[in-house]
Design brief:
With 290 residues, this protein is an alpha/beta fold. It contains 10 helices and 10 strands. Strand 2 and strand 3 form a beta hairpin. Helix 3 runs parallel beside helix 4, helix 8 runs parallel beside helix 9 and helix 9 packs parallel to helix 10. The radius of gyration is 17 Å and the shape is globular. The model has no long low-confidence stretch (mean pLDDT 96).
Length: 290
C-alpha cells in the first residue's frame, strides 16, 4: 500500500482560477489538510495544474485542464503515489479516470447530481454537468479524444450515494439506460445512508474504484456548498463513516474532492473542515486496508 499522496491541485471553474468553485481547493488547503494527512504517516506532495489562460473560452480551457489532470494522475500512479484531486469542477474525475488507465474501473460517487448530461439534454448550460457522458464517449468526443489515456468507459460498477437533484430525463439515464446503482436522497424521509451504503459495498465489489466527493452531497441544512444545494442529503457523520469504510470493501485508486464554493453564502469554514475530516477518514481506512 502506498504511503505517498500527490494532491493534484486544480483551483479552476471552467478554466478560471479561484472563480466560484475554483476557490474550494485553496479553502480546503487552508484547513491544514496536508498536515493532517502527514500525521497519518503519509508523504504529501502538491502537484499544481498550471493556469490555462492562453486557451480559448471555457470549453478550450476546461478540456486543457482535463488533459493536464489525466497526466498528473498518471504520473502520480507511476511514482507509486495515491492521487487526491482537489478540484473546482467535478468533471476533474473524468480526467482522473483517464489517467488511472484501469480497464474495469469502478466508481463510487457522493453527489447530489448525476453528471451524465450531454449537450442535447442539458438545460442549464453548465458544462460541469457533463463529465460522465464525456468519459463514456457520449459527448464532446473530439475534445475527449485529445485527453491523454482516454478510452470510453462503461458504468457497470457504479454507485451513487446521495443522488437526488435530478429531472426525469436524468433519472432515466441513470436507472434505465446505464443501470447504475443508487442510494437515493429523499427530502421527505430520512435515509439511513450508512446502513444502505455498507450493504451495497458488501453486496458488490466496485474496485478498482475512483472515489468522487462532490460536497453538495451534504444536506442543504449545512448551508450552500455551491449554487446547487438540495434537501435530503448526507449529514456529516454519515459522510465520514461512509467514505471511511470504502477501503475495507473496495480497492480505491483515486479520490476527488470538488464543487465547493466557499464564498457562495454558506458556512465555508464548516464545509472546508468537513472536507478535511472526510479525507482523514478515507486515508485512515486506506492505512488499515489489508
Amino acid at each position: 500500500m502506498t504511503k505517498s499522496i500527490h494532491i493534484v491541485y486544480s483551483p479552476y471553474h471552467v478554466g478560471e482560477r479561484n472563480l466560484r468553485v475554483g476557490g474550494g481547493p485553496d479553502k480546503i488547503l487552508s484547513f491544514s489538510i496536508v498536515n493532517e494527512l502527514e500525521k497519518l504517516g503519509y508523504f504529501v506532495k502538491i502537484v499544481e495544474i498550471p493556469p490555462v489562460n492562453e486557451y480559448e473560452g471555457e470549453i478550450g480551457k476546461s478540456f486543457e485542464i482535463l488533459k493536464r489532470t489525466s497526466v498528473a494522475v498518471h504520473d502520480s500512479i507511476s511514482q507509486g503515489a495515491f492521487p487526491l484531486i482537489l478540484s473546482g469542477n467535478c468533471m476533474a474525475s473524468a480526467g482522473a479516470a483517464c489517467g488511472l488507465q484501469e480497464d474495469h474501473l469502478g466508481f463510487i460517487y457522493f453527489d447530489a447530481h448525476d453528471d451524465l448530461d450531454s449537450p442535447d439534454v442539458n438545460v442549464n448550460g453548465y458544462l460541469d454537468a457533463m463529465g460522465l457522458s464525456m468519459l463514456k464517449g457520449e459527448s464532446w468526443n473530439a475534445h475527449m479524444s485529445q485527453v491523454p489515456y482516454f478510452k470510453p468507459l462503461e458504468y457497470n460498477k457504479f454507485l451513487y450515494c446521495g443522488l437526488r437533484d435530478v429531472n426525469d430525463v436524468q433519472r432515466v439515464r441513470v436507472t434505465e439506460k446505464n443501470h447504475m446503482d443508487v442510494i437515493w436522497g429523499d427530502k421527505h424521509h430520512k435515509v439511513d445512508y450508512i446502513k444502505l451504503f455498507r450493504k451495497q459495498l458488501q453486496a458488490k465489489d466496485y474496485g478498482p474504484a475512483l472515489i468522487h466527493l462532490d460536497l453538495d452531497c451534504l444536506d442543504e441544512s449545512y448551508g450552500k456548498v455551491n449554487d446547487f444545494p438540495s434537501p435530503g442529503g448526507l449529514h456529516e457523520n454519515e459522510l465520514l463513516e461512509c467514505i471511511g469504510m470504502i477501503p475495507k470493501y473496495a480497492e480505491p485508486k483515486s479520490l476527488t474532492i470538488c464543487s465547493f464554493d466557499p464564498d457562495c453564502g454558506g458556512d465555508g469554514d464548516r464545509i472546508a473542515q468537513i472536507a478535511v475530516n472526510a479525507a482523514k477518514n478515507f486515508f485512515e481506512g486506506l492505512n488499515n486496508r489489508k
